[in-house]
Structure prediction request, 66 residues.
Amino acid sequence: MALAIAGAGLLVLGLLLWPGALGWFGRLPGDIRFERDGVRVYFPIVSMVVVSFVLSALLWLFRRLS
Prediction:
């Protein structure tokens, strides 16, 4: 059951990423980007904090429901 839910979640995420619905993700204030001649360095700090919070909330919810 968990594998089916994870697969459905990945499907929904893929459908959102395809048309650019999550274009804001990775460009939040606090994400660090350096672009120089031929070099790009990117640290999505705040974006990963948001992902961590959402995943933690979902896992907490699933534990409470089961």
